[in-house]
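Hi Y.,

Following your request, here is the sequence exactly as I used it, all 82 residues.
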Amino acid sequence: MDADNFALVREALMLTLLISAPVLGIGLLVGLVISLMQAVTQVQEQTLAFVPKIVAMVLVAVLLIGWMGSQMSAFAERMFGG
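Below is the corresponding structure, written out as tokens. Let me know if you'd prefer a different format.
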């Protein structure tokens, strides 16, 4: 592989991190808040932590789908455009 191929792979990985960071970050924050609430109230129910994280992550993904699509579209144009 030459330097151009490495640059393309690096750009693809960075784009993947950029696109997934908001969704994963919200999942992390919601999980932390739920865990703190569970520790304070001593309620240790697994579904109590799972369901709010999934709902929050899906909401963020739906809200940011336009931005994610435009980022991927711009990358695809750079990749296949020449």
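Residues 5 and 11 are 10 Å apart (CA to CA).

Thanks again,
Q.
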